[in-house]
Amino acid sequence: MDSGERETLLIIEDEADIRELIAFNLDLCGYEVLKSADGQEGLDLALGHKPDLILLDLMLPGMDGFEVCRQIRKHPEIAQCPIIMLTARSEDENMIKGLELGADDYITKPFSPQVLVARVKAILRRRGDLKKKSPTGKIIQARDITIDIPRHEVRIGNKRIELSATEFTILQFLAENRGWVFSRNQIIDAIKGEDYPVTARSIDVQIVGLRKKLGDHGPYIETVRGVGYRFSGE
Ligand code: CA
Asked: To 10 degrees, the CA torsion angle through 91, 214, 194, 132?
């Protein structure tokens, strides 16, 4: 994105007071804010505007948040867009299901606007850092997995694999450090930066999703019992 251009965020949330509260606070931070109360309309807005980040409520009338998430990941032009799910505190299973579908993070309701804004900034900063850190043309070849960092693309042979932004970042981090074992907390630090409250459990869920998408190549991401994960160095 050009410097000076405002980042665009899309909020898909049917509860008007929550939607307006989020919109108000993000607008204060200088973001361009798009809003929808409806899953299908939200998806159409995402396709039309290609936002930099989507805040997605899971419990929506009509097309629910899970389906919206699935659809976003299916459309190549917005498949890499970071998604933060909004869930109720009691919806642990929903949170895991959402992460498996490719959401990058979740926030449980009720949440403070400050926490929400901090999460949004952290994810956008991480994406920005990732782009800056990667010299143009940098491609990691790990066995027959090709990780094309500038294009944010993963291929196995000629087949393109669609990963969420977080899955991509984890794979990139592990593949850049092949053979080294990292704890869940080290992975969190590496991909999120400091003071970012993602749980060890959500790293496990992301790894499960990543392995599934890598198919036959999934086992290259090894679990080191009692320690963490590594990309097989052999
Ligand atoms: Ca709702």
From this structure: -130
* Per-residue pLDDT reduced to its tens digit, 93-134: 887 888 888 888 888 888 888 889 998 998 888 777 655 554
**Total domains, the chain:** 2
Question: What is the distance in A from the centroid of ligand 1 to the CA of 85?
Answer: 11
What order of strands is seen across the sheet that includes strand 145-148?
139-142, 145-148, 153-156, 159-161
Is the pLDDT confidence value at 87 over 50?
yes
Kindly report the CATH number assigned to the domain that includes residue 18: 3.40.50.2300
What are the pLDDT digits (tens) for 133-157?
A: 545 458 888 878 999 887 888 999 8
d(C-alpha 28, C-alpha 16), whole Å? 18
Ligand 1 center to residue 81 CA distance, Å? 21
Confidence (pLDDT) at 2: 44
Question: Between the CA atoms of 174, 177, 181 and 183, what dihedral angle is there, to the nearest 10 degrees?
Answer: -60
Domain region containing 106: 8-131
Asked, for residue 3, whether it belongs to a domain, the answer is no
Rg (CA), the chain: 17
146 Cα to the center of ligand 1, angstroms: 39
| pTM, entire model | 0.64
